[in-house]
Design goal:
Layout lengths: L20 H30 L14 H4 L8 H15 L5 H27 L7 H22 L2 H4 L1 E3 L7 E3 L4 H19 L7 H18 L2 H7 L10 H19 L8 H19 L2 H7 L1 H20 L9 H7 L4 H21 L5
Antiparallel strand pairs: 1-2
């Protein structure tokens, strides 16, 4: 909305600043951060009032979670989504379809997560809606978003997969690109969901990945930068950087209350929404493979579950003491803050590696 203030400019006043993505990204960051600080406390108090017993704790999870985390309310993702949506609508351009695609995916996956969280609270157990139903809904949302992206991108890019490091290498997947992109979005949403098992564990890597993808979106959305870096140019994708900045601000506002010991959990409402957003951004910018690097921690968490389930079904034995892998380290005796901070460090390293692929061509 505020972007259109630049039409009031004569070229040398404050209104001219609203033309620039970097200025609006900064505004989006501080707006979502302020929104979080202003409204988090009353919303958390409301969630505590409505959820007298807090989020149901898994019976098969670490034993100490029953005592340490009992009574903590969930659905804190509404704080993140509220901050993110308000800030994005305020600072993003309305005439750029990529913004609406990412917002659509974020809200849609957030709604799935909200229904799942509500179901858990209503049933008073850790099992929400069926996993199959969640996946089916996720596939439909991701497929719609993917087809939307294909329809607005240049035909030379729309069905192609960009290969990092190699200059201008695009693999034309044809119609196979649709299931691939759907898998990226749904996989990203569920990987972040699996990572969200300790206080502050998921939100910081999400912010790191969002910042990295925002930089990439800004680079591929500028003719000069994309030409210098020898990456594909995607007109309008730079606007996603404003959304990414808003997500970081919303995440920091939430982390203030989610830092150990958490006053609120983001729940599936937040984790599915944020994971879906990361997947959608990677599809819009044609950096799906780079997302697997930047979000390598999420990939590791998801793989640990897949390996654990497969090994148990095939051999009757477990590879990890408990999956996802952060619970394995809890079983080894690592303290929760120790696991969280070390996983944050891994996320930073992976993000830097992912960003390095922009230059290593």
């Amino acid at each position: 909305m505020l972007y259109f203030l630049h039409f009031l400019s004569d070229g040398g006043d404050i209104f001219n600043l609203f033309r620039y993505i970097t200025f609006r990204a900064g505004g989006a960051f501080f707006t979502s951060l302020a929104f979080g600080f202003l409204f988090s406390k009353p919303i958390i108090d409301l969630l505590k009032k409505k959820q007298k017993d807090g989020q149901p704790i898994r019976d098969d999870g670490p034993e100490n979670h029953k005592t340490k985390k009992a009574g903590t309310p969930t659905m804190g993702g509404v704080l993140i989504i509220g901050s993110l949506l308000f800030s994005s609508l305020l600072w993003c351009r309305y005439d750029i379809s990529y913004v609406w695609i990412v917002i659509f995916v974020t809200l849609s996956f957030g709604l799935i997560g909200f229904i799942d969280d509500f179901s858990k609270l209503y049933k008073n157990n850790s099992r929400g809606i069926s996993g199959k139903i969640r996946l089916i809904l996720g596939f439909f949302i991701a497929a719609f978003a993917t087809i939307w992206v294909i329809n607005i991108q240049d035909s030379s890019l729309s069905m192609a997969l960009a290969v990092p490091i190699f200059k201008d290498v695009l693999l034309n997947l044809g119609w196979f690109y649709i299931p691939f992109a759907v898998f990226v979005i749904v996989g990203s949403a569920n990987s972040v969901n699996l990572t969200d098992g300790l206080d502050g564990l998921a939100i910081m890597p999400v912010m790191i990945a969002s910042g990295s993808l925002g930089i990439i979106a800004y680079a591929v959305g500028r003719v000069d930068f994309s030409d210098y870096l020898e990456v594909h140019y995607i007109a309008g994708s730079g606007e996603i950087a404003v959304f990414s900045a808003a997500l970081i601000g919303a995440g920091l506002g939430f982390l203030w209350y989610n830092a150990p010991p958490a006053a609120v959990f983001m729940g599936d409402t937040g984790s599915l929404a944020l994971g879906g957003a990361l997947g959608a951004i990677s599809v819009c910018t044609k950096h799906e493979i780079v997302l697997a690097i930047i979000g390598g921690l999420f990939v590791l968490e998801a793989l640990s579950v897949i390996i654990q389930v497969a090994a148990y079904k095939l051999t009757g034995k477990r590879v990890f003491l408990m999956a996802p892998i952060h619970h394995h380290f809890e079983k080894l005796g690592w303290a929760e803050p120790q696991i969280v901070i070390r996983f944050w460090i891994i996320s930073v390293i992976l993000a830097l590696v992912g960003l390095a692929t922009l230059k290593l061509r």
